[in-house]
Amino acid sequence: MKINKLAIENYKYFCSLEGSDYIASEFALETILKLIKKFKLSSVLEVGLGIGSVSDTVLKFSKLNGLNIKYVGTEKNEFCLEVLPENVKKYNEIQVFSELNAVSNNKFDLIIIDGLDSSLIELKKFCAPNAILFIEGGRENQTKSMLDIFSKCLFVNVITLKKNPSYAHEDRSVKSYIGGGQLIFINPTLKMKLFWIRQKALTFIKRKIRKIIKK
Ligand SMILES: C[S@@+](CC[C@H](N)C(=O)[O-])C[C@H]1O[C@@H](n2cnc3c(N)ncnc32)[C@H](O)[C@@H]1O
Description:
By secondary structure, the chain is an alpha/beta fold. The protein has one domain (3-214): 3-Layer(aba) Sandwich (Rossmann fold), CATH 3.40.50.150. 39% of the residues lie in helices and 19% in strands. The protein has 6 helices and 7 strands; from the N terminus they run ααβαβαβββαββα. It has a 7-stranded mixed sheet, with helices on both faces. Helix 1 (3-15) packs antiparallel against helix 2, helix 1 (3-15) packs antiparallel against helix 3 (53-64) and helix 2 runs parallel beside helix 3. It is globular. The relative contact order is 0.15. S-adenosylmethionine (SAM) binds next to helix 3 and helix 4.
């Protein structure tokens, strides 16, 4: 199954579930899967599992492609903890911790930040040498603190020209663009540098197109 098809199908499915208000966007799911495929990422830490849209999508992708992705996530909201086992088909493959502090000192290729955690400042210890951070949506404060910690990183705000689909939660207007994400390469390889240049160019072009459409 193509990445965008899986992202759309799973996003649509999670939109139909209770508590879908805060789920990661369709664009975020697609971006995360593309990163996993392109850079052959095999371990993921998600800060803020929520109701499980990201973890379920990644683990489905992993199964469909015969991968063996280690998935660790944090969550302490009672409602989310209750629905996660029902929502995530491969829930038994996730190691769930209440907060970052409780995560054993593992290193991850991809760290997805989609929730709050008071220990985020210590994220460095969870990073594999060439780790990628994906911050869902705007999250200005968290992005700023990550850019302060990883002063030599490459950073790009990835955006899309797609608007929210009709099946998205009612708070997400079909007239607004789907939220983007913040991509941080803490110690980029050459392949990551080339990818980053392309993303910077795409964001530049998409911003121009948005301005033209607005006029
Ligand atoms: C943006 S959400 C995380 C969404 C998650 N990555 C997903 O795609 O399902 C951030 C935090 O909001 C809280 N949260 C998410 N959904 C909630 C809900 N339906 N009710 C209460 N809290 C929720 C959880 O603590 C979660 O970690």
